[in-house]
């Protein structure tokens, strides 16, 4: 095993590397609200390519705009090839940039969650060259590739520890998007996640923040997908869901104003609870948005409002993080069309109608600090195998039954068939009546 050529532990030797010197003041944002609302930060100038020439002034402008909406946190992403261009090299300059961004967010009154291994962002994959072409390594199964990712997460955790606005460290964005080029089994995924979650936790230290991971909707709806619902709902500190309206053609199948679309984030939250072994485990709607043409621009403000209100009707919701802060500038080529329209702000920094709707809805929900969400005492029983998981996705029989019940005025929870006779479990969730999806 080659030594890791990084300044991972240089903070003790070089002031300002990774950690601020103790004499520097660190801004402390307001205390975290009980129910959190934030946005995934996409730099308006240069998209994530902005990391190549990071400009703190421009980042501050973006983050101040986000804070101005009354949001409390951002999720931020650096690029894996820039952080770790060689398997045994982690660039101190790139880590410093990330830490600086977190500090700027604090100065703007925002908390931050950091995603570590990018990985996949908005239809582009970012691999360091040491994983590609002549040096190809399966990022999920190659022991040295896993070891290198673990080293990166430890480095980031140690660099970020102690910042009062840090929410936590996530392994990376929707890592299951990399499966197509990195074949992997469910058992291998479990090993990969366990190893990297342990590395992130080691980096942050005890009490240093949340440790999480994320997957796109195939983990929940995809038959035999190697990233499983169980992994999402049982590994890490919080279950993250990304209920996108384009998944399984939901918006096109049912229509942009349909109950199926407007209750999708709520449904994703309840579905996630079914796979958790801990009835009290929180669920975080970590990505949801209003992509055109799936959601026409005229419908986006209304969609944002009802999505937040419906998700907030779920007990155990950690919060909602909208995708995304700023539109991709159309001067950048080759993005799918929907990626140019997802921002709360346009690429010049002007707030769009959806930004105002989101801000007003967040303010409305926060105006009820003691707001109590009734427990869902009726549950729909989910009976599926890994090979029939698609029944719970848009177009599936279970999904359509749940949506019908919701449309009729019920507020159904979801219970897996193997827990349907577990009285202790049902009581812990407050469930008094079970409904069959058959």
Automatic annotation (TrEMBL):
Organism in which the protein naturally occurs: Streptomyces capitiformicae
Name of the protein described by the UniProt record: Glycosyl hydrolase
Lineage, opening ranks: Bacteria, Bacillati, Actinomycetota, Actinomycetes, Kitasatosporales
Domain of life according to the entry: Bacteria
